[in-house]
Amino acid sequence: MEATAASSVKPRRGARRRRSSTLTGRDRMWLWLMVGIPAFLHIALVWLPASLTVVLSFAEWDNLAPVSEISATGFRNYWIIFTIFETDLFGALFNNLVLVVWLTVCSAIGMLFAYLLDKNIRGTAIYQSIYYFPVVLSLAVVGFIWKSTMFSRDRGLLNAVWPGEPVDFVGDSTKLFSFDLPFLDPALGLSKNFAALLVAMAWRHIGYIMVMYLAGLKAVDASLREAAQIDGCNEWQSFRQVVFPSLRPINVIVVVITVIEALRAYDIIAALNEPRGTDVMGTLVTKSLLGEGSGRVGFGSAYGVVMLLLCLGFIIWYVANHYRESEL
Amino acid sequence: MTKPTESSPKRRGAGLNRRDFMIGGGAALGGAALLAACGDDDGGTTATTTTAAPTTTADTGPGSTTLGSNFSGEVPKAALAAAVAATGVETTINTIDHNTYQDNFNTYIQQPDDVVSWFAGYRMRAFAGKGVLGDISDVWSGLSGMSDGFRSASTALDGKQYFVPFYFYPWAVHYRKSLFADMGYSIPTTWGEFKALCDTMEGDGVIPLCAANDGRWPQMGMFDMINLRVNGYDYHVSLMGGNESWESAEVKNVFSTWEEILPYYQPDANGRAWEDSAVALGDKSAGMFLIGTFLADQYPAGEEIFEDLDFFLFPEINAEHGQDAIEAPIDGFMMAASPENETGAKALLGGLGSAPAIDAFLDVNPSVVAANSNANTSGYNSLQQSSATAVGSAKQIAQFLDRDTDPDFAAQVVGTGIADFLTSPGSIDTILADIEAKKQTFTFE
User: Fold this and answer.
1) Is the N end or the C end of chain B the one with fewer CB atoms within 10 Å?
2) A249-268 pLDDT, tens per residue?
3) Predicted ipTM?
4) Cross-chain residue pair A84–B268, CB shorter than 8 Å
């Protein structure tokens, strides 16, 4: 914040200092425009549809009748997804939870890769390209690669090298582990095909995160590391005490990206045709809202709202926490 | 996407369109079609709109009209253009990717072209009931060569016709003639013979039954066939219409009958695309495959496997119902509720429903069977001939599970239930209870 006029009176601690108002009317106009246009677009393109989704989740509409014929149904859609489609809903939520944990692990691996590749080892550009490659592939290609060439039971690469009986990586929805919940039958757990999908997700996520950290690492002042070295830090200490803290801005972005990616995961699962056992919130929403049926807008919107609340809840909690910390 | 997923992939459309999907997929790694199948949310705008050269053979009679087409593969597209040309009605054809078209039909039909391509049965009736389609009963009164079965598949609940059938393709048990001849297998006509044949094949080291369920629609065909054989067509229609309980003894009987042949299935059906099963049937590692006749498109026409392919009707299970019913999805055309040029639209529909149009279509794309019995069948290959005979002799024609009931209910409830049944047949009671509970949240026509 720029200093105010040369007042000799010290402002009270915590009191806001007056901002100099040297802005001309013209400046103000530009400021308003520059803030206003993106804000307007944001509200119109993000919050308006989101609010409409919330409204529709309390209604019944076949996406065909005139808007005037949409009928309010109160919490019926929520009642349906929480009591009748509950195995789908909680199965999906559990898979999303697994993804949060898993992608966090992948982010850490991505950071490790970036740290190693940042050391100007020979051929670093080649390694970088290889790890980043999956990120630039289109969804269609990713789907094809994993479904037809890697996972396929009859002619996939994985099964060619897999010892013993062939495994149905795509379709086997039996559980690797599961635990009983009193209100849920069948039990909640991680299905085998979702575990296989996690590999495909990692394949893409690690490269993505790696590139972000590579950019961040370039910005870390080399003299800081040097100083740490001179002070006798070992590799781990210098990373933990010096490099990692200075990566803070990137860390914030990576945490947000990782969690949001985990909550709204959709593309690779869809490319694999949403096999049983691999549903996440994203696929439940799209299955109900898109597609030929799409006659149950309210029902699909209710799924959408559950997902929206999860994402929003996390973002608000995290951003609020983060900025509180950084003000200290 | 979906969304289908290859998807959606996952598509339950016409056989030739699946074929085109694979062709497109092979060429461009699935590009647009795959994305569309995966639930493309703005499919309408990504659609490739191509305008066929207006076919102006008509003397300014009915004027010019428009046709929304999902014949998006190269061959079907050319074939449809030829068919439209044969009607002599000046028409602009707007072609949209098949899966995109289907996924966005709900939106599209609110501002459609004059004539639109679609499917017969419940899928047509659902839209007719919502008043977005135009009554074409007068077109029907001018049609000849359409059987009563096709008329009823084109009739909505109000007794009027809203659909003109174009072609169909039956579902039946496919096999390789040379395998059956070499091993001395004979065509089973009863459930007992069928299971005995499965046993023999297993003993010979051949997987008896191809089994694919990727996309969760291929095994719907097996459910349909067993239900039609065990409980009959009327029960099947009633069940599809939401009027019977999925926990009834009849439905449980279907699944227990089904369980008898599960041991003969290719293992791990849920993850396998039907195209992979086609490979197994082709190389004779598997013996029989219940699937639509679009299967033949997987093998190059005129070459060994294609020529060697044949099918037989699903065997009789309950003598009361014999082999009466067959499953044969019908594709055709409908008219918008308020077309810009109603005279032109009706002239086009009348033309498409008559023999010359389908003859022109089959000249270019000989993989389906004409709905109109006046069509020229002299150019049919043996599979087309068998298809025509099979459907012609059937007492009832079902469409397909997801065409005979609410498509959402089919895909999200019954399809997932069947997938779970294949994974653990023992929990069928829980699965059926779940289907029945979810069914209550749907409104049927």
Assistant:
1) C
2) 888 889 989 998 898 888 88
3) 0.84
4) no
